[in-house]
Design brief:
The complex is a heterodimer.
Chain A: H1 2-9, H2 11-19, H3 41-48, H4 53-84, H5 90-101, H6 105-118, H7 125-148, H8 153-161, H9 166-177, H10 179-195, H11 198-203, H12 211-214, E1 219-220, E2 223-224, H13 226-246, H14 251-255
Helix pairs in contact in A: 2-13, 3-13, 4-7, 4-10, 5-7, 7-10, 8-9, 10-13
Chain B: H1 5-31, H2 51-57, H3 61-91, H4 98-105, H5 107-110, H6 113-124, H7 130-137, H8 154-179, H9 183-191, H10 196-207, H11 209-224, H12 228-233, H13 245-255, H14 259-284
Helix pairs in contact in B: 1-14, 2-14, 3-8, 3-11, 6-8, 8-11, 11-14, 13-14
Classes of the chains: A mainly alpha, B mainly alpha.
């Protein structure tokens, strides 16, 4: 059974990764050619030739990292407040954040793209980093809240007795204690922004487009250049895979917003 | 303690999110009442009342896409949940090598949907893709235009790619939910000689209900909003057989540049999505903390 599972769910990934080093002649021969002389042409072309995928890789990193940096100062205080204060309507606020994660991105993308071009922000990193917040803030608030919930309140009370202010407690005591939670949340936010194709598909221009969206350019008028697509696509899928492997312990908690403590 | 403190902490994020969402949506609401073709000019070209809404509803344009979307969403979520649950139960048996299998199984879920689109375009390729070859070698006939090229199979082929990507997600999450059930509850039920199916339905499922609800709801809405997979795999075709609501908006706005029509459909979709979320929240999260 396990072998069948691996064949079904991991097999296609391996098959696709092999496409990146497969000689074009064997890409579509059936029955499949399993043994072949690997070719590095596509990899060399995509990464070493100037003017190609290096900028897209760079764009992806800038946008995903920028989204993480902008996200934290907004979502950490909100997560802290929602964890520590019994405010009225807390459940509704949490559900409102959750609802935002389910909003249809295309619905506000087209108006956003027209607005962005009218104020001269279209095609900028900033516009894409900003719009990523509609995904990363709600997600981070949910996830970080579940981490903050686990910090014993007694530590804060002790500090309060010593005269510490709310800001000091939040930043000097709670923030260091939930550092693993911040790291996990940031890595998830990075992957979400990295993998998102909808925003750059509509908002990026030729020089700011990201790696996943960049693969579309190889659907040329002269046909599909599969080797190049595979190289770009594999480069796009490696960082999220590595991050999820590193986060193994936290993956479930992240993907369920802490509803299963993992 | 002053009670404005929590609001001071929450409001920056809420204000930012409201700005990012309200502005485009109000802008779209206004545009939905105007004729505006972006190729003809940078500003709206005349008030047309509800004409854009009428145009969307005429000829089954919007309703056809809505039907495809609902079909995909309901079938996809149900299949992913059931297959995921079966795999979760298998993983929970803790056989040798299961931990490695579990860690690897999350891989499809980590891939960007647009890349999954490319992966499956390669796998479905009518000129020598792995899937048509496998199907024909076991004697299952495939359409001459290929699985993505025939209007009777295209929607299912797209859905299959989504199911491939997200079944492992359900499996891992439900598996973790099953593991979090305290052993003594299972032991007690076992001593009572509870049959396995009753054990699953009456004991295990209620205990992982909260987790299951969140993931079902999230996946339901993600499937409802599907469009990047369609951009790569079929572009809504052949005919209109794979046009989802999301892709229809995208096409009207950024392929045909008909901003008025796209905006009207945006608002119809926003209303539908909010109604669904409202139903979920009302029925599923009423007794929630």
């Amino acid at each position: 059974m396990v072998i069948v599972l691996m064949l079904v769910f991991i097999g296609p990934i391996v098959w696709f990764v092999l496409l990146a080093i497969r000689p074009t002649a064997t890409a579509f021969t059936m029955p499949p050619v399993l043994v072949f002389e690997p070719t590095w042409d596509a990899i060399r072309y995509t990464f070493l030739d100037p003017g190609n995928n290096r900028p897209q890789l760079f764009n992806s990193v800038i946008i995903a990292a920028g989204a993480v940096l902008l996200n934290l100062p907004f979502s950490f205080p909100a997560a802290y407040a929602l964890s520590r204060y019994k405010i009225r309507g807390r459940k509704n606020i949490m559900l409102w954040y959750l609802g935002l994660l389910m909003a249809p991105p295309v619905a506000f993308l087209i108006p956003y793209s027209i607005l962005a071009s009218s104020v001269g922000l279209k095609g900028t990193y900033f516009s894409m980093i900003l719009i990523c917040q509609t995904l990363t803030i709600p997600f981070s608030v949910w996830l970080m809240r579940s981490f903050i919930d686990e910090v014993p309140v007694e530590i804060e009370e002790a500090a309060r007795v010593d005269g510490a202010s709310t800001a000091a407690i939040m930043l000097r005591i709670v923030l260091p204690l939930v550092r693993p939670g911040i790291i996990v949340t940031s890595m998830f936010a990075f992957v979400f922004s990295w993998n998102n194709a909808a925003f750059p598909l509509v908002l990026a221009n030729r020089s700011t487009t990201t790696l996943p969206v960049g693969t579309l350019q190889y659907f040329g008028t002269a046909g599909v250049t599969w080797g190049f697509i595979a190289v770009a696509a594999v480069a796009a899928m490696i960082p999220p895979m590595l991050i999820f492997l590193a986060l193994d312990r936290y993956v479930v908690r992240g993907l369920t917003f802490g509803s299963v403590k993992g | 303690m002053p009670n404005y403190v929590p609001w001071l902490l929450i409001s920056p994020s809420i204000i930012l999110l409201l700005t990012l969402i309200a502005f485009p949506l109000l802008f779209a609401l206004k545009n939905s009442f105007y004729f505006w073709n972006l190729q003809m000019g940078p500003t709206p070209m005349g008030f047309v009342g509800f004409d854009n809404y009428k145009m969307a509803l005429q000829g089954g344009f919007f309703l056809g896409a809505l039907w495809n979307t609902v079909l995909m969403t309901v079938v996809g979520t149900a299949v992913e949940f059931m297959l995921g649950l079966m795999i979760a139960l298998l993983l929970a048996r803790q056989l040798k090598g299961m931990n490695v299998a579990r860690a690897l199984l999350i891989m499809p879920t980590t891939i960007a949907p647009i890349v999954v689109g490319f992966l499956f375009r390669y796998m479905y390729d009518p000129g020598g893709g792995l899937i048509p070859w496998l199907l024909t070698s076991v004697g299952i006939p495939i359409p001459a235009q290929g699985l993505l090229g025939s209007s009777s199979t295209a929607l299912w082929a797209v859905l299959f790619a989504d199911i491939w990507q997200w079944t492992p997600f359900f499996a891992i999450v439900l598996y973790a939910g099953l593991l979090s059930i305290p052993d003594d509850i299972i032991e007690a039920a076992r001593l009572d000689r509870t049959p396995p199916l009753a054990m699953l339905w009456h004991i295990k499922m209620p205990l992982i209900k909260k987790t299951a609800l969140i993931v079902v709801m999230l996946r339901f809405m993600q499937l409802f909003n599907t469009f990047d997979l369609i951009v790569v795999l079929t572009k809504g075709g052949p005919g209109a057989s794979t046009r989802t609501l999301g892709y229809t908006l995208y096409q009207a706005g950024l392929v045909d540049f008909n901003i008025g029509l796209s905006s009207a459909m945006t608002w119809m979709m926003v209303i539908i999505v909010n109604a669904i979320i409202g139903l979920f929240v009302f029925f599923a999260f009423r007794d929630w903390d």
